[in-house]
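Morning, I've got a small favour to ask if you have a moment. It would help a lot if you went through both lines with me. I owe you a coffee for this, so here goes:
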Amino acid sequence: MASDTLHLEDDRVAALHRLGVLDTPAEDRFDRVVRLARQLFGVSTAIVSLVDRQVVVHKAMVGFDEPVVPREESFCGTTVQEDRMLVVPDAAQDERFRDKPFVVGPDGLRFYAGQPLVAPGGYRVGTLCIADQQPRQFDADSASLLRDLAAWVEKELVIDSELERAAQVQAGLLPRSAPVVPGYEVAGACLPSRAVGGDFYDWSTTGSGLVLSLVDVMGKGAGAGIMAASIRAVLRGSAHGADVAQSLLYAGAILHSDLSGAGVFATAFHASLDAASGDVCYADAGHGLTVVVRSDGSDERLPATGLPLGVLDEEAREQRVVHLGPGDLLLTFSDGLLDLVDGTLAGLPPVVDAVRGAGSADAAVDAVLRLAAGAAERPDDITVVAVRRAG
């Protein structure tokens, strides 16, 4: 029987660690709920606690100043052993707690109410608790309110683990290595502003060279990430290959109802490189953030050739051609980079200046990432792809 209890405790602690929140900084979303709990119940202390094997970590607290306490000294260590709320009207009269360090003395805690926080799998990993120096009763309405607040905390804890998994899946959809195209270098990077973002880039080699895409779904977070994955799948599954205009038209037709129904749109740059000639055929769905930086230092912005995906169910898409000579660099990026300046095309020259003279596609991408790293905050996803013809 003791071995079964130990096994269950091992599983409980493992479930807590899978949430990935034990060692993270304080977060306002949890701080808000403890402030609200203290105000609603008129108590001196409110805490979101996470019960590890030997210690209790206070993820959020108000009216208390010890972030970590030994488990054996904590009310919460007892709370997670039961599948119901623990209410202690007067700890000084309760033989389980009257000798605890936080109870003894004239200013010790007397009242405690804690609702277990349940992680996926049904494991009790912590509590939302309130406490006060004065004994009190806790009626059914108050208990129901505390359970409601605890349910909100549970959802927030699960969101973290789900988003981490979603981020791993999304990262796995990005290209794992640069394509081999003789005479060219290709590089790319994606920096989501949150765990999951709405940007993606993709590429694949063809018999004549390369097809590449950069797509920016309006918005951030999981919803944008789902749409981005859908667009990627449709573009990859298109049988139109180097006919990039037809590929975008096909994607727009397939996804128009989904995009418009969700109230979002997506800009896209979709291009095909013919390695022998250096010609790049491209179709641009409302993106307009692609530049060619010539080996002589001049530059040319490639304008959008149509509306974003999801705006209208278009009947045709325009395709244009730009030529890459030896030493020329094609750079396409998402508008999150412009948001680091003022969100307009006034932010384009600093980007062009940063990559001018870059000796490789990797160097160009690194230069863009340094611009992003120098910003105080990153309000939107940033994605960049560079193609450079050998000089």
User: Anything to note?
Assistant: The mean pLDDT is 86. The helical segments are 2-18, 28-41, 75-79, 140-173, 221-237, 244-262, 348-355, 361-373. The CA atoms of residues 271 and 285 lie 11 Å apart. The first strand starts at residue 45 and ends at 51.
